[in-house]
Design brief:
Blueprint (H helix, E strand, L loop, with lengths): L4 H9 L8 H14 L5 E3 L2 H11 L7 E4 L9 H5 L3 E4 L11 H7 L4 E7 L8 H11 L2 E5 L7 E2 L2 E2 L6 E5 L12 E5 L2 H10 L31 H31 L6 E3 L6 E2 L5 E5 L2 H10 L27 H9 E4 L7 H17 L1
Parallel strand pairs: 2-3, 2-4, 4-5, 5-8
Antiparallel strand pairs: 1-9, 6-7, 6-11, 8-9, 10-12, 12-13
Helix pairs in contact: 1-8, 2-8
């Protein structure tokens, strides 16, 4: 959190308006401009953004949603909350992203949405997924919690799917302490999302006596809106986003070069038509526990970050985990090393040295 946030935050805190107000509108405009999209709907979490997207896609009791199990549980808890049923698609074990071919095979008459998780910030095969969704008349929802600043075919993530969901949770590239955003391709859906995030009411409506509640409620919504305190932090964070994003990407490029030719520590694959924000830098290591202990002893944190969701009873146990062979291979070997903007040149050298030492002893 930059020191420069304090003057603006103090001004907001004592302005007399700390709920959803002018700072939220200002943050939404600035974020939309940065993403190069017409509009952004801010909310109180990335999970709320996913919940709104699924609601707007029409997901209800008994409806199927196809997604990758390799993600945070927050991707899928809204599906269950709406009464939907998870259908697990396999992933590419060298990107961590959902397989478009397996999505196509898993679609049914009950499918209402596809969730495409951009693992670590690396964009999914959006053209293929969009074609599947369009052909079947179902929604493509992007879980872009890792992907703020990523690009696909020249455009920033946010400009592609029917719904794109971002997270501004505490450890994301841009944080509002907690918060999120939803980008809707349709203006009609954007307007509906703005109502649904505040109970289903038009927040700008005023009766003659300035009462917002004197309006019809034709669709029950949620209390998902962002507040001006969070938006003030987001506005200040935006000033640092380009520089921090560039450092994430530079660190990742440095590690890519350092790992070239390694046999035991293998980076994930990249395609020239897209670029990752590198919120994570994930590698595959067969001797993962030994690698974890080696890095820990070298003073370097590393983590699996997330594990496969199809093992959680809340989502329905997958009776045949072996059917998702890509997930099995990726989940058994994936681990992420520090890559963020806080990694300076000295830390980068320390990480590379530790990687080289582990490779040399195997």
């Amino acid at each position: 959190m930059p020191d420069s946030v304090m003057p603006a935050l103090q001004q907001t805190l004592f302005s007399g308006y700390i709920g959803e107000g002018p700072r939220v509108a200002q943050f939404e405009r600035a974020l939309a401009d940065w993403l190069a999209v017409p509009d952004v709907v801010t909310v109180n979490s990335g999970t709320s953004a996913l919940h709104l997207a699924l609601h707007l896609a029409g997901v209800g009791p008994g409806d199927e949603v196809i997604s990758s199990p390799q993600t945070c549980v927050a991707t899928h808890t809204p599906v269950v909350a709406l009464g939907g049923r998870m259908v697990w698609a396999d992933i590419d074990p060298w990107t961590g992203n959902i397989s478009a071919a397996d999505v196509a095979a898993k679609c049914s008459e009950r499918t209402k949405a596809i969730i495409a998780v951009h693992w670590g910030g690396y964009p999914c095969d959006l053209a293929e997924l969009a074609a599947i969704a369009h052909t079947r008349g179902i929604a493509l929802i992007e879980d872009a919690a890792h992907a703020l600043g990523s690009r696909y075919q020249g455009l920033r993530i946010g400009a592609h799917g029917d719904f794109v969901c971002f997270s501004f949770q505490a450890i994301k590239l841009l944080t509002t302490v907690d918060g999120g955003a939803l980008v809707c391709k349709s203006r009609e859906m954007d307007a509906r999302a703005r109502r649904l995030r505040w109970f289903g009411l038009d927040r700008h409506y005023m009766a003659n006596d300035e009462c917002r509640w004197d309006q019809d409620l034709d669709e029950a919504g949620y209390k998902f809106h962002m507040n001006d305190v969070a938006a003030t932090i987001g506005l200040e964070q935006l000033n640092y986003l380009d520089a921090n994003l560039a450092r994430h990407q530079a660190n990742a490029a440095h590690f890519d070069a350092a790992l070239h030719g390694f046999r035991h520590i293998r980076p994930l694959l990249r395609s020239p038509d897209r670029s990752s924000a590198h919120w994570l830098y994930t590698v595959r290591v067969k001797q993962r526990q030994a690698f974890f202990e080696h890095m820990r002893d070298a003073g370097i944190a590393c983590s699996r970050v997330h594990v496969r969701n199809d093992r959680y009873r809340a989502f329905g146990i997958n009776a045949d985990e072996s059917a998702l062979s890509g997930v099995a291979r990726f989940d058994a070997e994936q681990i992420s090393i520090p890559c963020g903007w806080w990694i300076g040149d000295a830390e980068r050298r320390q990480i590379v040295q530790a990687l080289q030492q582990f490779e040399a002893v195997l």
